[in-house]
Fold this protein.
Amino acid sequence: MLKVYTLANCDTCRRAVKWLRARGTAFDERPIRETPPSMTELRAMLAAQGGELRKLCNASGREYREQKLAEKLPTMTPAAALALLAGNGSLVKRPFAIGDGVALVGFDEHAWVAAFGAK
């Protein structure tokens, strides 16, 4: 089943969930701060994003800035970066949608239509 990690007060997450519901797509919504994506899910998403770690990060978030990840990320190993994300859902870009044949971060309607098909 499709898992969609969201944050309750995130407008982009609400738009993505509304979009999925309007199309009748079944999904399991999970709170990203309380239950961050697993290492397995993060590795799959990293592969789907062409190995670009930054695409998985909530670069506009306070914790990302406070930890100076823009400076640290380029020198981190993928394993270390993914472990950091798995341990802190606030650092993960959202919505984070992963399931059979689907791996999307952020809500770009054109990308979501391509992944799920137009309805």
